[in-house]
Amino acid sequence: MKETRRRAVKKPSPTKRKQSSPNAKQSATEVKKPLWAGRLAEKPEEEAFAFQASINVDKRLVFDDITGSKAHAAMLGRQGIIPKDSAAKIVRELNNIAAEIKSGKLEIDAAFEDIHSFLEATLTQRLGDAGKMVHAGRSRNDQVAVDFRLYLKREVPLLQARIAETTNTLLDTAQLHLTSTMPGYTHLQKAQPVTLGFHLTAWCAALERDISRFSGALTRLDECPLGSGALAGTTLPLDRKSVAQELGFRGASVNAMDAVADRDFALELSSACAITMVHLSRFCEDVVLWASEEFKFIDLAESWSTGSSIMPQKKNPDFAELIRGKSARVTGNLLTLLTLLKGLPYAYNKDLQEDKESLFDSMDTLSICLRMFAGMMKSAKFNLKRMKASCTGGFLEATDTAEYLVRKGLPFRQAHETAAHIVRECIEKAHKHIGALTLGELKKHSKLFEEDIFKALTPAACVKGRILPGGPAPKEVRRQIKVLRKKIQNHVR
Length: 493
Ligand code: ARG
Description:
By secondary structure, the protein is mainly α. The protein folds into three domains: 2-136, Fumarase/aspartase (N-terminal domain) (Fumarase C, Chain B, domain 1), CATH 1.10.275; 143-177 and 194-382, Fumarase/aspartase (Central domain) (Fumarase C, Chain A, domain 2), CATH 1.20.200; 398-491, Fumarase/aspartase (C-terminal domain) (Ribonucleotide Reductase Protein R1, domain 1, Orthogonal Bundle). It is 60% helix and 5% strand. It has helices at 2-10, 46-52, 55-58, 62-78, 84-103, 115-127, 129-132, 140-176, 196-221, 240-246, 256-261, 264-290, 318-342, 354-379, 384-389, 398-407, 412-428, 439-445, 453-456, 459-465, 474-491, and strands spanning 24-25, 108-109, 181-186, 189-195, 223-224, 251-252, 298-299, 381-382. The strands form four sheets. It has a two-stranded parallel ribbon. Strands 3-4 form a two-stranded antiparallel ribbon. β5 (223-224), α10 (240-246) and β6 (251-252) form a beta-alpha-beta unit. The longest helix is centred in the first third of the chain and has 37 residues, at 140-176. 42% of the residues are buried. The chain binds arginine (ARG). Residues 54, 58, 114, 140-141, 144, 348, 350, 352-353 line the site of arginine.
């Protein structure tokens, strides 16, 4: 038992999920003195220390922690809380540390509890007493809250830009297919003719809302928690306003207890990620269906498909399936955060440490899925002939038949019933579409039918007639594409 435990400690578990931040030394063997060592006479047990440590996750915040510390230290100097020259030294050394981490000269030591401890220890090792001054009036509770927000203010716009990129790719394709008719479905049953351009634009309308959802969350998280301390502020005369300003926040947070306990911003962003992933998942479900032999609407590029180890003929839409699959983990991450917060007493509790891994994973997963989705769609070929042919059969023109009669003065309910009877007759006569009946046969259902009915029932005419705002008429979809492009441009400016 003891043996196993020792081995487990010697090899601290590397972070499971790949992270984009600077390398951390993974092979730490001894526990570094924690910031709180003064209170506890006993040294932490190694495995237990490793269990509660977060450095493998929060090392991603290293540059944000440095940014926050620089602003805090400079303010401490301005306020006369620490000597001005000590503040200047701290700022200078933090700049050096940042540069060294960027260049790879300094490695983050994973033996420390978290990124905050590592940076304070590095600073103190280099500056002595000056390094020990940086934490005056601060707690890791407000420190991590500011780091996380700074990180998200930086990273979320990149994620939004990526959604915009994917959306614009889809809009480009939509633009090419304003007149490419295809069946529109409800209940996965053929409903009314639409165009491929219209269908793709529908996806893009959802993605545009996704981008704006992230903006909403960013607006609300734009408050600086520094100066909140552990939960109840500090007696030291900090200048919260100037720190908030220097860090680029709209202002300082309103209530210290709220500032350290709040993770609404993580919830909102996790939710925005989950909703976007659910959208991608639905699009992928369309793609999987379209790629099937039964639909054959889309031909995915061979480089964006996979084969089977046993069935030689297979060309599988694995990318679409995996994006659909990954939406499960991102929605799971949202549930993790909601559950994390649900029973949490005010103010800070260590449970909150779980917030970052969850949100980082959602953002990483969404980011790669967006790229994969765009790549898959860009390289795909649409089988336009097959889509068009699928508009015949299934009586997609039945609603247009009813509306034809309404235009000629028949109340809609009657027109609906008449069209339904016509469909029944077609089925009995094994006709594939209403236009297969003669004018004489149609007139038996309603005297209102004239020769012009036949022209009105082609898929192209059905689509062209639905010109109202929001409709699938080519001219209207062209307008929709313009509107969406403009909205997207405004979001990611
Ligand atoms: N690693 C911690 C987190 O992510 C930092 C804050 C720790 N604060 C504390 N009082 N233990 O939440």
